[in-house]
Amino acid sequence: MSWSILICALDVFLGTLESSQRAAAVPRVQREPHIVLSSPSSLSHPSVDRDAILLGKSNAIQTMSTTIPFVIEHVFTSPVVIFVNSALSTEKPELTIINKNHPRYDNAARSLADESVLHVYKAVFYNIPVQVKPRQEVFCVTRGAFIGLVAGWENALNCVLGVPGAVHFRVDSIASGEEIFRNAIDQGSIEMVEPWATPDLYN
Q1: Are the C-beta atoms of 174 and 132 separated by less than 8 Å?
Q2: Between vectors from CA 29 to CA 25 and to CA 32, what angle results, nearest 5°?
Q3: Which of 4, 12, 119, 184 falls 20 to 30 Å from 47 in CA-CA distance?
C-alpha cells in the first residue's frame, strides 16, 4: 500500500474522530421555556494534532478547555391560550380566555402548574388539580414556585423545591383546601416565588 493512500485513510479517520469528540462535548438540555440561568461551567474535550500523529509523537492528543457562558436550569413552557376560572372549583365554571395579547398573559402562564386548571380570586392566580387519583393526597401551597392546590407529593415538591421559606401542608379535600387558600388570599399571606433565585431578588 502506498504512503499516499495510507495518509489519506488516516486523515479521514482523524476527521471522524474529531467530529465525534465535538458531538460528545455539546451539553444536552432535556426539556424542561422563562429561563433561569446559573453560573458558568467548563467542559474539556481533546483536540488532535494530525501532523504529530503522522510523525509518531506521543503528545498528538491534547486537552482544550471550553467555558460555557451559562447553564439552563429551569424552563417554563407557555401555552397559546389559558382558560382561567373565577368560580370555586365546586361551582359552575366562569371561564375567561387569556391569550398572548392579554396584559396578564405572562403572569397567568407563569402561574400555571402541571396537571392543573388555573383559577383566579381577587386578581391572584392559583392552581386546582385536574384530577385527584385514588390514594393521592392533596396539598395546599401558599408560598412556592406555584401556588394553590396540587395532588400528590411529587407535584407538591415541584412547587416548593428551591424556594426558601416555602409553605405547604396537606388538606382533606379540594373543597376545604380551596377555602383555606382563598382565606389566605384575603389575609395577604400567599406569595409566588422564583425558585433558586438569589435572596436580593426577594427584596
Answers
A1: yes
A2: 175
A3: 4
Write the pLDDT tens digit of every residue in 107-134: 999 999 989 999 999 999 999 999 999 9
Q: Which is more confidently placed, 165 or 37?
A: 165
Give percent above pLDDT 70 in the chain.
59
Cα–Cα distances (Å) from 87 to 38, 114, 117, 122, in that order, read 39, 20, 12, 11
Asked which of 43-57, 139-153, 182-196 is least confident by mean pLDDT, the reply is 43-57
Mean pLDDT within 137-154: 96
Q: What predicted TM-score, i.e. pTM, was given to this entire model?
A: 0.61
Helix, strand and coil in the chain, % to nearest 5 = 30, 30, 40
Write the CB contacts of 19 (distance below 8 Å, at least 6 apart in sequence): none
Partner residues linked to 116 by β-bridges = 129
Element (H, E) at 184: helix 174-187
* Integer Cα distance of 67 and 179 in angstroms: 50
Q: What is the DSSP secondary-structure string of 11-29?
A: HHHHHHHHHHHHHHHS---
Number of CB atoms found within 10 A of residue 47's CB = 12
- Rounded to whole angstroms, the Cα distance separating 86 from 142 reads 18
Beta strands in the chain (DSSP E): 35-37, 41-48, 61-68, 72-75, 81-85, 95-99, 116-121, 124-129, 138-144, 148-151, 167-171, 191-192
